[in-house]
Structures are given as structure tokens and as C-alpha cells.
Design brief:
The chain is built from 14 helices and 13 strands. It is α/β, with parallel strands linked by helices. It has a domain of 254 residues: Aspartate Aminotransferase, domain 2, CATH 3.40.640.10.
């Protein structure tokens, strides 16, 4: 799949760490939401550790008691942003000067695209499973600027997922003029499949095409050799697999993108400048910070840095990734063996997300039944609309497996999935009535 920094041996060692059950029990006790039910939606928002909540509350209480307008507190925002940049750089195993803080993955992706300075007649390549906010923003920009968007499907004419080699071939055909940029996820938010960026990104570089990678479902969920993949821009959120806070994200830019003649930031917030631009011009930072805006809240900055730092140093990111991957593979293998269950991608082609459909069931019905019977938090993901040569795909149930999940939870989900697949929503045996006795 990838060299993954030769992480295979590292992941194998991490996956077989001693006293794993004891470690998991201890960690679950520090993440309350993971004991309230089966938490399977870090692909939307990860569970919040107590330590992160405490860090946020401490800053909030200080701001409540003494205010937020002291000059040293306003200066502290920049310190906290740099702290978060450092933690993000550590998670990515990359250089600090290449990392900036943003408000969301979509914002970071689109700021990078705007910085590409597309012109009428240019083309941007993306996939049909890219996040809808990004696809919609691409379409809006294209309508205003006059460039075109070429959308590559990850499915064949029957709606079946195609191979990595076929995806590479379809994308490569478009890595010629007038293509100026490619916007692509590392992991599909719909199917959970890992996309073959090891093959695509070098081809894009060789063709002089800007590569913008949506890392929303990969950063914190898998270990990547980010410096080896080296997209021009990698954007990722805090609140998903890094267990941080909504409204914060990270950007990692390549040295090519930061060099003279590279990406030109379309707007600079206060934190993008070395000194205040009092002369009406100012001097921007010469590193990734020039892509930063402003408006970052100190409690959120502190919470996000604490979350990613806690995950890296106390939980151990290699162990967390290895365990989550093992649980996802176990669930995928079990689900694939159940008659009537269809995986969106085959076992072994995903990271921590496993998406599926069950014959006779709507995805929303599965979400509801898993919630009712196991207090499981899952997600319905939409289907992909039809095109001239491909049928529409149906919505699916998405499960996002984390290090906090257990083998018992895998077994329980497979037990219920077997039950659902053997019935229709109408024939499914009703849950026993729970009698509540008041005293």
C-alpha cells in the first residue's frame, strides 16, 4: 500500500503491546463518551478526553474571571497558535515551518485552491467521493472564475468500486494541460477506502500540477509518510481523529508551495504578518504562517493542542492507529461474511472507516436500530448521484473505529448486523419492553 515510513513493523509491534486490555480500560475511563455507548463516529467528531475538557475549562474560567482583553492575553493567542502548530507538526512528523493553523479542512482546501490563481480555461481534477462542501465550493469558484472541474469516479458502470490501478489510470489521463490542480482525499469520507496517493502525487508533481489533499479521515487515523507523499497542501481537522475542538484545523504546505512563485496566499490575517501592517503593506511570514487568518479562541487552541499532544504522547499514536486498524479489519471481515451485507470497499482497502449496506434496509434505519439496541453512535453517509455513464449509489451506514473500541463491541455490532441482515425492518423482532418500576 505505502511505504508508510516503514511503519508496518512499528504498527505490528504497537498492535501487540503488553496488557492492552488494561490500557484500553484505563483510556476509556478518561474518555466518558466511550463508555456511554459504542462510539463509532470519530469520522464526524471524535470523543472528548477529560484532560482536554479540563484544559479548556481552565482557560475559560480565567477569561470569565479576569476578562479576555488584557494585552498579554491577546499576545498569548499567537503563542497558543504556535503551540498547536508544533503539536500538529509532531503528529505529521514534519517541520514546524511547513505547518499553519486554519479554521476547517474545507477552508484550508479552498484557500489553497484560491492561492493557485486559476484562470478561465484551466481545469481542476477531483473525485466523486470528495467531501460535498469542497465539491460545492469548487463548483461555485468554477462558475465565477471560468475554470472547469473534471470529476473522476471511483466506481465502474455498475456502481462497483474500481481498483487502485484503475483510479490511478483515470486520474493520470487528466494530469495534462489544462489541468492546474488536483483536489483529492487520502481516505474517502463515504467508503473509507484509502486512495492511492503514492502513485498519483508523484505524477502530479512531474506534470507541474498543484496537489491539495483532504486529510480529514486520515490524519490521526493512519500513519503516513507525509514528507515522502509531499502534497503541496495537506488539510486536516482537529475535532475528528485528533480528538480536538471544532473550528480548528491544520495545513501542511510543501516547500514548493512556499517558494517564490509558489502558492500566493489570497488574504492574510493578523497572524500572517511578521509585524502589524501599519504602513498598509506589511511583511508576511516566509513560512506556512502566511496562510493563517485570525479569530482563534484561546480555549479551543489550548484544547486542540492538549488533545493531539495527549494522543501522541500519552496514548501513543502508532499504538492507537494499529489498534483502530485491527478492530476495523475485524469488523469488515465479519461483515463481509454475512449474507445480504455489502461493503462499499473490500476488506483491507480501508483504514479505520468501514461502510456498508444491508439488503432491504435504508441506511437511516440501520443507524436507528444500532442506536436502539446497542447505544451505538454511527453515521448515515449519502450516496453518489448518477452520471451519464454510472448509476447513483445508495446511502450507506458508516462505522468509524477508534482505539477506544473493544473486541466485545466488534462482536456485538456483528451480532446485530447478522440479525438485521436476516430480517427486514418490518420482520425484525421487537426489543423486549423494559418495565420501569417507580418507588
Amino acid at each position: 500500500m505505502t511505504d508508510q515510513i516503514s511503519h508496518e513493523a512499528l504498527l505490528q509491534a504497537a498492535a501487540t503491546s503488553t496488557d492492552e486490555a488494561g490500557k484500553v480500560a484505563e483510556l476509556r475511563a478518561t474518555i466518558p463518551a466511550t463508555t456511554a455507548g459504542i462510539y463509532l463516529n470519530a469520522g464526524s467528531v471524535g470523543p472528548l478526553p477529560r484532560e482536554v475538557d479540563a484544559a479548556i475549562r481552565q482557560v475559560q474560567e480565567q477569561e470569565l474571571a479576569t476578562g479576555r482583553a488584557s494585552e498579554h492575553l491577546m499576545d498569548d493567542v499567537e503563542v497558543r497558535v504556535d503551540e498547536l502548530r508544533g503539536v500538529f507538526a509532531s503528529v505529521l512528523a514534519t517541520d514546524l515551518e511547513l505547518v499553519a493553523v486554519a479554521h476547517s479542512t474545507t477552508e484550508a482546501v479552498m484557500r489553497a485552491l484560491i492561492a493557485t490563481e486559476l484562470k478561465p480555461g484551466d481545469r481542476v481534477v477531483t473525485l466523486d467521493e470528495e467531501y460535498p462542501a469542497i465539491r460545492g465550493s469548487l463548483a461555485a469558484r468554477a462558475a465565477r472564475q471560468g475554470f472547469s472541474v473534471a470529476t473522476v469516479s471511483a466506481r465502474d458502470e455498475h456502481g462497483v468500486a474500481i481498483s487502485d490501478a484503475e483510479i490511478v489510470a483515470r486520474v493520470t489521463e487528466l494530469l495534462v494541460p489544462p489541468t492546474r490542480a488536483i483536489v483529492i482525499s487520502r481516505v474517502s469520507w463515504i467508503s473509507g477506502r484509502i486512495l492511492p496517493l503514492e502513485e498519483i502525487l508523484p505524477r502530479a508533481r512531474a506534470a507541474g500540477i498543484i496537489s491539495i489533499v483532504d486529510g480529514a479521515q486520515s490524519v490521526g487515523a493512519m500513519l503516513d509518510a507525509v514528507d515522502a507523499l509531499d502534497p503541496d497542501v495537506l488539510a486536516f481537522p482537529s475535532q475528528k481523529w485528533l480528538l480536538g475542538i471544532e473550528g480548528l484545523a491544520g495545513m501542511r504546505l510543501s516547500r514548493r508551495a512556499l517558494a517564490a512563485g509558489g502558492l500566493q496566499t489570497p488574504i492574510g490575517g493578523f497572524l500572517a504578518f511578521r509585524d502589524p501592517a501599519l504602513d498598509g503593506v506589511g511583511v508576511m511570514h516566509d513560512d506556512a504562517r502566511r496562510f493563517q487568518t485570525s479569530g482563534f479562541a484561546r480555549p479551543a487552541l489550548v484544547g486542540s493542542a492538549r488533545a493531539a499532544g495527549w494522543l501522541s504522547m500519552q496514548v501513543g499514536l502508532p499504538w492507537a492507529v494499529a489498534r483502530a486498524g485491527r478492530l476495523a479489519r475485524a469488523f469488515a471481515a465479519g461483515a463481509a461474511s454475512i449474507p445480504g451485507v455489502e461493503l462499499l470497499v473490500g476488506p483491507g482497502r480501508h483504514a479505520t472507516i468501514v461502510a456498508l449496506r444491508v439488503n432491504g434496509w435504508e441506511a437511516s434505519q440501520l443507524v436507528e436500530e444500532f442506536s436502539r439496541r446497542a447505544f451505538a453512535i454511527t453515521r448515515r453517509v449519502p450516496g453518489v448521484p448518477a452520471t451519464a455513464d454510472r448509476p447513483a449509489s445508495s446511502p450507506a451506514l458508516r462505522t468509524s473505529w477508534g482505539f477506544w473500541n473493544t473486541d466485545e463491541e466488534v462482536a456485538r455490532m456483528l451480532e446485530l448486523l447478522t440479525l438485521f441482515a436476516a430480517h427486514t425492518p418490518e420482520s425484525l423482532p421487537k426489543r423486549p419492553t423494559i418495565e420501569i418500576i417507580q418507588r
